[in-house]
Amino acid sequence: MKKLLLTLCLGIIGFQNYAQVPYFPKQYICYKTHQNLKIDGKLDEEAWQKASWTTEFVDIEGAKQPLPLQATKAKMLWDDKYLYIAAKLDEKHLWSYQNKKDQVVFLENDFEVFIDPDGDGHEYFELEVNPINNTFDLFLPKSYRNGGDALISWDIKGMKTAVYCNGTINNPTDEDQFWTIEIAIPFESVGMGLNVPFPKDLSLWRINFSRVEWQHEIKNGKYVRKNKPDGTGVLPEYNWVWSPQDAINMHIPDRWGYLIFSDKKVTESPIQYQLPSIETAKRWIWAGYDAQQAFHGKNKTYTAEPSQLGLNWPKEYEVKIEASEHLFMIRLKDLTNKKLLTLTQDGRLLVRDL
Description:
2 domains, mainly beta, Immunoglobulin-like, disordered N terminus, 11% helix, 3 helices, twelve-stranded mixed beta sheet
C-alpha cells in the first residue's frame, strides 16, 4: 500500500536495473502440517518447530543497500483449508498505536504479506499486521504501476491472526526482544470471486513479505516517528523484505518469491525441487516489459523491435512485439514448453498452449 504517489517513478528506476538479466526470486517449499495449529502467535507446536525459516530479510533494494539493523524471518505451513504464515521480528522497541481495523498500519512499524495466487501480476492481495495485532487487508485488481486502485473495503474472510510480544508495548523506558506473528489465511477467501483453485501438490504461488520499520523518538512519553533534521517531515522508513525487489516498491508482483506447496508432511524428509522451465520464460518476458518501460521513459514511445530493448533473448524463444506511442504487446513463444506468453503495457501475463 505504501508510496502510492511514488510507485510509478520508483518502478521506472527499477526497470533500468533489470534491462539485462531476468530477475531470480527466492523460493520456499511449504509442507503440510501434521497437527492442528492454535493461532496464538507463540509458534510452539511441533509443526512450527519443524518448518524451516526463510533466509533473513534484506533491504528492499537488495545488495546495493546495507543489511537491516534488526533480524526478520518467516516460515509457512498449509493444510486443506489454510495457508499458515509465521514471522519473527527482532525489535528493541515495541510500539504501536494504530488500533482500528483497516487503519493505514504501515504508518507505524508492521509486517506485510503480498500474495498473487496465479502469478499473472494482477488480482493480488496484501495484508499488514502490527505489534498489537491490528490488521489492514486490501485487494488490488492490478498493480499501482498499471493504474490500479486498492479495494480497502475487501476483507480476508475467516482469517485468523495473533501476535506474541517478548517485551512491553509502548513503554519507552525499557528494551524489548522480539515479536512473533501467526496468520491463518483461508484458501476460499483469497480469490475475490475469481475461482482461484485451492493449491495441490507442487502448486506454485507468488508471495513476498515486507517489514516496515521507522526511526523513532520519544515525545511526551510516547513513541513518534523521527523527523528530518531540517523539519520537512518524517525520516523515510526502512523496508526489509524476504525476496528483494531492487526498487523501493513492493507492488512489482513478478519480483516476488515463489511459494511451492508440497503434499508431504513437515515431519517427513524434504523434497528436491526445481522450478519448471516455463518460469524462466516468464522472467524473460517480464524483463521485456521492464525494458519497454525504460525505453518509453527515454523515447516517449514503445518499440516494436526486440533488439532495441537491450536483451539477449535465448534462442529457444521466438519474440515478436507490436507497439505504438502508448501501447505494446510482447508475444514470446516458448518452443520447449510449447507455450505462448503474452504481456502488454497493462502488466497482466497470459499463458496458453501453442
